[in-house]
Specification:
311 residues, alpha/beta, Nuclear Transport Factor 2, Chain: A, Ribonucleotide Reductase Protein R1, domain 1, five-stranded antiparallel β-sheet, two-stranded parallel ribbon, 16% strand
């Protein structure tokens, strides 16, 4: 019986082909990794430049002599494509959460939470817990939370029994995870830096409606009056209010008969937010600076950087 012998050249050829395929795959993988690393490095460089451009805008916007409608707040370089756009807005365009709690205005907090989708009992409990976090005693409100509750959760030395130093601390309060679930952008409604009241000249219509206890359509009257005939803020025809009671009268609210509502508002707060968005090679960064007394000797209270989607 004749036995077939395997040809050694055929086996070697298969081995060489397999080795080439493995090397080709390894080469492709290496090229992809190198390409990815280059993209990351390029993005970092462009992102860094976009931040530098945004910082240029912050320097312009922080200058006391630059008005909110000044053309210097908008810059575009035709050669490089770099640009920045700056907004100067009142920080009191947001609710000062410390002021609300220290005024014991839980009715406003409950109303906001209910409008966001929480039921009345949950809204009331979170409002009580916020009050307990800030007050100086260990006596829990009806549905609040003091040291005993936090210790049961394994959290010692809480609540802090003082006003919030930043909005991240607000997330530590019992029930705030429920607020965050229904309203992930809740931080856009609050601040800790304003003088206290909601600025009628810069607040969004939804915030004015909540504070004045009116519907959004009614609150638009204030916003439209401030923007003037052209309907655009920060233009020459703006008509900002000099005091909050004058704005409330447009809503049919008398400050003397409703001091609780009047206490929620202010006008022309001295704390401003300078937002500068910088762009470079498609990368975008936003630098936010909160300044007190910008028109005199500005004091920087907070500064942050946001990464924005590429253009």
């Amino acid at each position: 019986m004749t036995r077939r012998r395997r040809h050694p050249r055929g086996a070697s050829l298969l081995a060489v082909i397999l080795l080439i395929a493995i090397l080709a795959m390894a080469t492709m993988t290496t090229l992809r990794v190198v390409s990815f690393d280059m993209e990351i490095a390029t993005a970092k460089i462009h992102g860094s430049r976009a931040k530098q451009v945004a910082e240029m805008g912050i320097a312009i916007g922080s200058n006391p002599s630059v008005k909110r409608s000044d053309p210097l707040l908008h810059y575009f370089n035709e050669e490089t494509g770099e640009r920045y756009d700056v907004r100067i807005i009142s920080e009191a365009g947001r609710f000062n959460i410390n002021s609300i709690i220290l005024r014991d205005d839980k009715a406003l907090l409950r109303s906001i939470f209910i409008d966001w989708g929480l039921d009345i009992d949950t809204a009331g409990a979170i409002s009580d817990a916020l009050g307990d976090w800030v007050d100086s005693d260990d006596n829990a409100a009806l549905n609040g939370a003091e040291r005993e509750w936090y210790e049961q959760q394994g959290r010692i030395n809480q609540p802090f029994n003082r006003p919030f130093y930043n909005l991240d601390e607000v997330r530590l309060v019992r029930g705030m995870e429920l607020v965050e679930a229904v309203r992930p952008d809740w931080r856009d409604w609050f601040t800790i830096y304003s003088g206290g009241g909601l600025d009628v000249n810069d607040a969004e219509v939804e915030l004015i409606a909540a504070a004045a206890e009116v519907n959004v359509d009614q609150a638009k009257t204030i916003v439209e009056t401030v923007r003037g005939p052209d309907g655009i803020r920060d233009t020459d025809d703006d008509a900002p209010f000099q005091n909050a009671p004058a704005a409330l009268l447009l809503l049919g609210i008398d400050a003397e008969s409703r001091p609780d509502i009047a206490a929620r508002f202010s006008a022309n707060d001295s704390t401003v937010r300078v937002e500068s968005t910088g762009s470079a090679d498609g990368a975008r960064r936003r630098v936010n600076a909160i300044l007190r007394n910008r028109s005199g000797r500005p004091a920087l209270l907070e500064k942050s950087v946001e990464i924005l989607p590429s253009e």
